[in-house]
Amino acid sequence: MVHRTTTAAPDAPLTVRLGNILAGLSHALDITEGHPKGHAARACLIGMRLAHIIGLRLSERTHLFYALLMKDAGCSSNAARVHQLFGGNDHEAKRAVWTFDWRNFGQQAAYVLEYAGKGTSSWQRLAHLARVAAAGPSGRKELFEIRCDRGANVALGLGLSETTAAAIRTMDEHWDGGGEPRGLRGADIPLLGRIIGLAQVAEVFWHDHDEQMALDIVEERSGRWFDPDLVRAFRVLARDHEFWSALHAEDTRRLVFDAEDQFAVVADEARLDAIAEAFASVVDAKSPYTSQHSRRVATLAVAIAERLGFSPENVTRIRRAALLHDVGKLGVPNSILDKAGALSDREWAVVREHPAHTLQILEAVPVFQDFAFDAACHHERLDGSGYHRGYPASRLSPTARALAVADVADALLAERPYRAGMDPEDALRILKDDCARGALCRASVFAIADIVANGGSMERDAADIAAAG
């Protein structure tokens, strides 16, 4: 259920706006798509200003607002496929596609030559070039289809409208029918999808250059990529120097907050759970080896918390922290996440930074700030041997300790690129060894042991939520 609210400060208690939550979490979507922080929020502001210029009805602006913030919710789902085709850093390849006119054969070829196998050996580059060539137009369609359809489904999972989902599903269609994934043409493309398509491209060229360059690109693609009527509206927007100056703000949350003002909603507890679930699915979609990981960790963490006598409020808190603990991993390239061999020192350094990204992302969301620190401590160890800060036991709360054990337990049970999943008894033995050497919380490890001793199973308990979902 969602309640109407009056204007209030962004961080006011009990009146946390849905848009303020999604604006903060959209930073996670920015990093997995390779965009600079704030891309989705800025694209949202551009799109909403275009909606104002063309006189879009308030009811339609509501659907558009949330579609703009969530437009990249499906971006993690095609990351593994992008890496499989192009190799190298999937973030770079995904961001760069927006700086080329991939409808133009010359620019398309230039993009492929620059990013297929980038940073690999000559033989590996040739292999990736061959892979991209073999995939052909159907490969491009597949990538857009995964991104758009998955993003629409995430929006629906958040309880957003079918109109919002349809806008996300059609945001990469082009006015002349040359877009993806369905080749819709003209007015067959929902107006909200057309607005998103223009706003996201305009933001990329504005950020990399300025509003004049954004206008030049939009004009150049008028009638091909973009609805000519929207292009005329963007000409008006391009002259609004005050708007573009405000867009340079380091933190655009206040601007997004103001844009939502006329139709603002407040998320209740059920909606907060849906948001945590939805973003857990975005995180786990990044790699085939992390499928359902966050949900399984949440189930294990809840089982530990309940056995240790956590209050109902703290059980809810640890579940949300567990669902979102790996949100920073969206910033780790699939070349590292899916690597079958040993990681280099440089690659390990990238991996070890993901809890810092988790902290930064969750701290930007008012209602999740309470557990941001604990969620970001899931790789810390009681003896100070963990990462990313090497905190000792004195800095780690019961929630952080239980979450760390749940994370290790699922990591041991799950299949990884470099090994098969372990037998539950072997995993429990390793947990007890880590406990004995002072790395993991004794109470949490023995809560896991209690599950097994009483006829339960780490593996089964961790799978329960996936089956229920």
Would you give an account of this structure?
With 469 residues, the protein is mainly alpha-helical. It has 2 domains: 253 residues, Hypothetical protein af1432, CATH 1.10.3210; 200 residues, Hypothetical protein af1432. The protein is built from 24 helices and 2 strands. It is globular.
Give the topology.
Blueprint: E1 2-4, H1 18-32, H2 39-53, H3 58-69, H4 79-86, H5 90-96, H6 105-115, H7 122-157, H8 162-169, H9 191-208, H10 211-220, H11 228-238, H12 241-246, H13 253-259, E2 265-267, H14 269-284, H15 293-307, H16 312-324, H17 334-337, H18 345-352, H19 354-363, H20 369-376, H21 398-413, H22 424-436, H23 442-453, H24 458-468
Antiparallel strand pairs: 1-2
What are the salient characteristics of this protein?
469 residues, mainly alpha, Hypothetical protein af1432, 2 domains, 24 helices, 2 strands, globular, disordered C terminus
Structure at a glance:
The chain is mainly α and 469 residues long. Helix content is 62%, strand content 1%. It folds into two domains: 15-267, Hypothetical protein af1432; 269-468, Orthogonal Bundle (Hypothetical protein af1432).
